[in-house]
């Protein structure tokens, strides 16, 4: 939903040019600026979608969003965003990271690396972690990320639950080395999002071979279930999330084997070279449909 697309649409129609729509998670109008999105859709958005050669979905979740709008399944292509699969092929000093953030060695760590934002669901994780402490009283919850509107609420929630001594806030982590150390300091990584069209941090977590849990509202949930690379829980089910965390902490060998498989799966299926080949084929097909022969 941009003015550029609105300006481009008449020219695309006039010159009979193929085009592909790539919302990148922006299809649902209710996420933000709802009134503006509805107005845009009424004048431009729906036509832009209807006349597109292809409709790109990052995940099955986004594909379902297209179908809910009544758009034809035959136009939808599902190709995820890729990741630099070599990005974390270096050693880091995890012990130094733990010392920096007062995380004692030997204590199980549940990690979260994302903006402290309502959509990311850190409040859901905090509630679940309080249950985890009933079974794992020495566990640590590491919340790594900048405040994006909910830090005060999280602080109050943590105090209300009486778990302050078991929670660490790191603030913003920018450089790749520190980020890798944060992932590898985690015995379990959780992305408890209310909505996530794909979920880059779960990909990063798996590239660091960390056992990973997300919710059924994450775009990669279907991939997790079908491939077996991670765990999925219903968003808001505190007992389910706590149970999965405790299970992975209680079965480290099984958890690590799943994470190692996840790392290999990421390298094979989410590398940019593989995805680029798929995109080239899509572009060729779209052009061929307009000019009548393959290019």
Question: Could you write a compact summary of the structure shown?
Answer:
This protein has 295 residues and is α/β, with parallel strands linked by helices. Helices cover 49% and strands 12% of the residues.
Notes on the structure:
By secondary structure, the chain is an alpha/beta fold. It folds into 2 domains: 3-82 and 271-291; 94-257, Glycogen Phosphorylase B (Rossmann fold), CATH 3.40.50.2000. The chain contains 12 helices and 9 strands. It has helices at residues 3-14, 34-50, 60-68, 94-100, 122-135, 151-161, 176-185, 200-207, 221-227, 238-250, 252-269, 272-291; strands at residues 20-21, 54-57, 76-78, 109-113, 140-144, 167-171, 188-191, 212-215, 231-233. A 6-stranded parallel sheet has the order 6-5-4-7-8-9, sandwiched between helices. A 3-stranded parallel sheet has the order 1-2-3. Helix 5 crosses helix 10. The longest helix is centred in the last third of the chain and has 20 residues, at 272-291. The radius of gyration is 21 Å and the shape is elongated. The mean pLDDT is 93.
């Amino acid at each position: 939903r941009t003015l550029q697309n609105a300006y481009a649409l008449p020219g695309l129609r006039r010159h009979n040019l193929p085009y592909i729509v790539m919302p990148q998670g922006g299809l649902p109008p209710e996420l933000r600026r709802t009134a503006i999105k509805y107005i845009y859709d009424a004048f431009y958005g729906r036509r832009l979608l209807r006349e597109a050669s292809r409709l790109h979905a990052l995940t099955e979740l986004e594909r379902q969003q297209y179908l809910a709008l009544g758009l034809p399944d035959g136009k939808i292509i599902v190709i995820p965003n890729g990741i630099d699969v070599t990005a974390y092929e270096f050693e880091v000093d995890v012990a130094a990271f733990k010392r920096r953030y007062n995380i004692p060695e030997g204590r199980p760590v549940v990690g979260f690396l994302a903006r402290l934002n309502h959509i990311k669901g850190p409040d859901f994780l905090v509630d679940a972690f309080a249950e985890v402490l009933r079974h794992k009283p020495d566990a640590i919850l590491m919340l790594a990320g900048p405040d994006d509107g909910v830090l005060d609420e999280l602080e109050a929630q943590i105090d209300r639950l009486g778990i302050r001594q078991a929670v660490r806030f790191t603030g913003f982590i920018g450089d790749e080395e520190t980020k890798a150390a944060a992932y590898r300091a985690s015995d379990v990584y959780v992305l408890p999002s209310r909505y996530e069209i794909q979920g880059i941090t779960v990909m990063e977590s798996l590239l660091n071979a960390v056992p990973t849990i997300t919710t059924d509202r994450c775009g990669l949930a279907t991939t997790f279930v079908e491939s077996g690379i991670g765990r999925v829980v219903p968003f808001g089910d505190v007992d389910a999330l706590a149970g999965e965390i405790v299970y992975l902490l209680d079965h480290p060998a099984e958890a690590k084997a799943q994470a190692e498989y996840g790392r290999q799966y990421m390298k094979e299926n989410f590398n940019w070279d593989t995805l680029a080949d798929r995109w080239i084929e899509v572009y060729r097909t779209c052009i061929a449909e307009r000019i009548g022969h393959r290019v």
